[in-house]
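REQUEST ID: PR-0412
SUBMITTED BY: lab tech R.K.
PRIORITY: routine
TASK: structure prediction, single protein chain
INPUT:
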Amino acid sequence: MRAREVRLIDEDGQMIGIMTSMQALNLARERGLDLVEVSPMAVPPVCRLMDWGRYKYEQAKKENEARKHQKTVELKEIRMRPRTDEHDLGVKVRKIEEFLGEGDKVKVSVIFRGREMAHPELGRVVLDKVAAGLKGVGQLERAPIMEGRMISMIVSRAPGWEPPKRTTTAPPRRTEQPSEPDDGANDVEVDTINPVESETEAALPPAGEA
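STATUS: complete
OUTPUT:
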């Protein structure tokens, strides 16, 4: 540090005042901290007392956390044919919507084969239908252009559009019926004798009276 005097701030952000560079260094050693120049262009330069190693560690930790929450935008691609039917077209549009909801961009391509190259307008019709199906969801980032044997466009998420949140329906809770107190009032005694047989036996006369 070349400046003869510095304006010193302590480790808590409180202003200490102007002192010589040597005094600031001695104070940093006494507190077991580092003297860091934070504003070299000021007159006098501004320095701060801090634990430089810990400061660098905290900064790296914050950068890592921020990096975890960053979404890398990818370019997905959906391919179709000039004669894609309405049902398949609807499926493709929903898939594009899903990609846009994840924050990605989508390249929508229509591939021509053989004699289909003689009718590129059919591919343009398909792309127009896709764009109409994405109204309010996506926006055209690159207009349709011919690329060899295909015509393609690029769509991205429309400003202000958010994908619908997926909700899961919880299964109904099972409710148990309260058990009644067992006082013996509902007990049933089961007779093991067949009532038909017992009536027959009662109708027979005693032995020797026949």
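NOTES: The first helix runs from residue 21 to 30.
REVIEWED BY: pending
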